[in-house]
Design brief:
Layout (H helix, E strand, L loop, with lengths): L1 E4 L11 H5 L24 E5 L9 H8 L2 H4 L4 E5 L7 H6 L5 E5 H11 L3 E6 L6 E6 L14 E4 L6 H9 L8 E4 L5 H4 L6 E4 L3 H6 L15 E5 L10 E6 H6 L1 H23 L1 H13 L9 H15 L1 E4 L5 H13 L21 H12 L5 E3 L13
Parallel strand pairs: 1-3, 2-3, 2-4, 7-8
Antiparallel strand pairs: 4-11, 5-11, 6-9, 6-10, 12-13
Helix pairs in contact: 2-10, 2-11, 6-13, 10-11, 10-14, 11-12
Amino acid sequence: MRHSIRRGLVAASLVSATALALAACAGSGSSSDSGGDSDDFDPLTSIRLQLQWLPQAQFAGYYVALDQGYFKEEGFDDVEIVPSGGDIIPQDALVGGDVDFAVAWVPKVLGTLEATGAELTDIAQVFQDSGTLQVAWADSGIESVADFEGKRIGSWGFGNEWEIFAAMADEGLDSSTVSITTQDFSMNALLDGDVDAAQAMTYNEWAQLLETVDPETGQLYQPDDFNVISYADTSGAMLQDALWADTERLENDPAYADAAVRFLKAVVKGWVFARDNPEEAASITYDAAINAEAAFPVGPVHQLWQMNEVNKLIWTGGDFGVVDADAWDQTVAGALKAKNQDGLELITQEPAESAYSNDYIEEALAALEEDGVEVSGTYTPIEVTLTEGGK
């Protein structure tokens, strides 16, 4: 039996900006066939899951499922979690057959699908809310998206910028006036004055900022030092971490469709554990991170903050992983409306109906509920006190 975490040196891009700018395809709210009528197949016992970034609590549920033996309980003896940090684009790895399932943001995949003509299906929408922020200094005069015109707006690029432009488009703002400045995966661009507002995730870069010492006070920066714009509060919010599967395999290979349901059962159990045991889940993920060749940042306090914030994005009251049709439609509408600073579009047409399906996650949830697993509800946050460097 082999439970492994592939290690690889990672850089920093998740999707080709050009492909995304011309991109998209995915679908509306329908679901795909759960894999054919025949039960005459040999169940898959080996799977590979592609992450979209380095080992961190953003992906805690998968590492927990590995650590706690949930994949083995569902009949998988060989499970490989493949991290990325830009050297691997998750949806490309899935389309290419290098992995069986992948974690990726919905708008990025929609862009890739339209650009390439490939077909993938969102089989579980893990994050129900957007965790993206734009952070400016408290005295910057930037208090909302309406203040973006003419400003230097930081973004990691590679598809992460589309929430910015979707939010601007919704307010009728001129995106050509914005100077998008590529920032690294830290808050140095804001701290050094290279941008007027920096991009951050609630569970990562925002914490990095609050783990930094203010040279004027000798103390850690405080939330009141900044103006924080949450895209979850705008119509530019887009669905983020989703689990993707190969559409054709789902429709034509009953063994793969069966594996998709079993895989989701293990994943749900992993995320339920992370919901109910955030400290232990953060510790499991921290262990995975420090044993990987690259992970940034990996401090245990930072990982606990991240676990706490990620749970907030997942457990919002409904059933785990079910694609909300309204949120999907908002994501598609934003992707269709958004134009970047160069006038390029993410997608130009509605995605295929097969772009998402609730069939597989609903089958997995029904089976787990029969076993007494609580697969819905909200998360009760814990208190996490940040420390310098998250150590």
